[in-house]
């Protein structure tokens, strides 16, 4: 086997693809209608918000930071949409307003992390509670459900008569943009350098604090966009929308091969992991598995995503050492 092919097969991302194939086989063999177009629509719809938020989360974790407030920003966005609609704002003004507010939430995170030097884990745990609390202050425990059907179709309808949900089309567009920026531009190289060694990145002229600040801003804005999708998809604006969603997002990013320590990862692996989570949860649901078990599965995938790449890398290094020691030396 060629060395290049052997190296690709040994990558964690390749193993994730294999897990996705196995999950599809499990669903196809265990549940009637799993491979139908209608069920495909259901799988893609269920992971719409997770997929959107996973895009900026990938960049943040590669930069050796983390944002645990994303689901709370989503919930705050939903609450704001409901409140502003109740106060007579037109949807055309509500949508850009909540995206800007989401970006401001991210800017608060970024300011606390980059300017005050606070750890992002502690900061975003705090703002997780803050933003969720604001959502309940704004809307209370009521739900707003009288949004125009024209806009609800953005979240509930399908693209051009196919079984592909409209939010999936939005995700594909953003995934292409994020993929190009991360893997084909100087900005992406700066993100990788920042996560690998921020001091070395600083000496090479990269404005590390600025890079990280804007990543948090983008994370907040995209989380708000996910909140819009969530509201239109379920036709309801509530303060508790998206509670706990950050666990699934982080599980997908890490399961996709992004290092929790920063500096390494690929967006394609994250996208595969998002679909793996969606397919597995859908297959288990069709087999009447309880929601508590689905939570256990998500937690298990998160644990696997932390341990798997590390174990795979160590096994690969051990095999390389064993080959180097068994290779006979040549002498003149």
Per CATH, the class reads: Mainly Alpha
Question: The CATH topology is what?
Answer: ABC transporter involved in vitamin B12 uptake, BtuC
**What's the pLDDT, averaged over the residues?**
89
| Number of H- or I-type helical stretches | 15
Can I get a quick summary?
The chain is an all-alpha fold and about 325 residues long.
Structure, described:
α8 packs across α12. The protein is 75% helix and 0% strand. It is mainly α and 332 residues long. The chain is globular and about 75 Å long. The N terminus is likely disordered. The protein has a single domain, classed as Orthogonal Bundle (ABC transporter involved in vitamin B12 uptake, BtuC), CATH 1.10.3470. The chain has 15 helices and no strands. The longest helix has 36 residues.
Outline the fold blueprint.
Layout: H1 3-9, H2 12-30, H3 37-46, H4 48-62, H5 70-86, H6 91-114, H7 120-139, H8 149-156, H9 166-184, H10 186-196, H11 198-203, H12 208-234, H13 245-255, H14 267-286, H15 291-326
List keywords for this structure.
mainly alpha, ABC transporter involved in vitamin B12 uptake, BtuC
């Amino acid at each position: 086997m060629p060395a290049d092919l052997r190296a690709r097969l040994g990558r964690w991302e390749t193993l994730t693809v294999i897990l996705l194939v196995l999950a599809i086989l499990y669903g196809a063999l265990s549940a009637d209608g799993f491979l139908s177009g209608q069920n495909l629509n259901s799988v893609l719809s269920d992971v719409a918000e997770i997929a959107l938020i996973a895009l900026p989360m990938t960049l943040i974790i590669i930069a050796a930071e983390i944002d645990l407030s994303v689901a709370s920003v989503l919930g705050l966005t939903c609450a704001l949409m409901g409140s502003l609609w109740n106060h007579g704002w037109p949807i055309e003004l509500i949508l850009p307003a909540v995206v800007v507010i989401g970006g401001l939430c991210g800017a608060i995170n970024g300011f606390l992390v980059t300017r005050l030097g606070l750890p992002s884990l502690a900061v975003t745990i705090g703002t997780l509670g803050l933003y969720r609390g604001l959502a309940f202050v704004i809307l209370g425990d009521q739900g707003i459900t009288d949004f125009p059907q024209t806009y609800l179709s953005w979240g509930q309808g399908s693209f051009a008569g196919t079984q592909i949900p409209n939010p999936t089309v939005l995700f594909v567009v953003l995934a292409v943009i994020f993929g190009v920026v991360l893997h084909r531009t100087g900005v992406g190289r700066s993100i990788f350098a920042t996560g690998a060694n921020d001091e070395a990145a600083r000496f090479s002229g990269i404005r590390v604090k600025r890079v990280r600040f804007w990543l948090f801003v983008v994370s907040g804005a995209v989380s708000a966009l996910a909140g819009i999708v969530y509201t239109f998809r379920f036709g309801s604006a509530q303060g508790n929308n998206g509670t706990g969603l950050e666990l699934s997002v982080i599980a997908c990013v890490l399961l996709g091969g992004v290092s929790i320590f920063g500096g390494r990862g690929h967006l394609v692996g994250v996208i595969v992991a998002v679909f793996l989570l969606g397919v597995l949860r859908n297959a288990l649901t069709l087999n009447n598995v309880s929601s508590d078990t689905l939570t256990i599965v998500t937690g298990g995938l998160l644990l696997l995503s932390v341990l798997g790449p590390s174990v795979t890398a160590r096994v690969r290094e051990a095999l390389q050492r064993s080959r180097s020691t068994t290779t006979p030396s040549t002498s003149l």
